Amino acid sequence: MEYLGISEICRLLDVKPHVLRYWEQEFELVSPRKDRTGKRLYSRNDINTLFRIKHLLYDEKYTIEGAKQRIWKELSQDSVDVQAAVHALRDTLVSLSIKIEEMKHK
Questions:
Q1: Per-residue pLDDT, 96
Q2: Which partner from 5, 14, 82, 105 sits 20 to 30 angstroms from 51, CA to CA?
Q3: CATH number of the domain that 43 lies in?
């Protein structure tokens, strides 16, 4: 997995390092790992979350608290949607399997 440092993230998001450090404190989903020297290394998930945070704060004008609530709501909704999709896919596969078995016996 590729990790990016704080300077690269700042350029991508067009924000200052202190803004990223503040967001890390406020949004527990952003948790860059640190190398031996203490340099922050952001994962792809961190980067995606940071882009979402910036969009909510700067474009949609959410407060920090509002953005937190929105992100948690989206995450819980995504989880429900994924579970529903998995169950639907399973049902489809079971149906197909039954049809294949029926066709073998004809």
A1: 77
A2: 82
A3: 1.10.1660.10
Residue 60 three-state SS: coil
Domain count, the chain: 1
**Strand, coil or helix: 26:** helix
Helix, strand and coil percent figures for the chain, each rounded to 5: 70, 5, 25
Give the amino acid at 88.
Answer: A
Give the pLDDT means over successive 10-residue stretches in the chain (106 positions): 90 95 94 94 91 93 95 75 62 74 77
Distance CA 14, CA 8 (A): 10
pTM, rounded to two decimals: 0.71
Q: Tokens 């969009």 — which residue?
A: 55
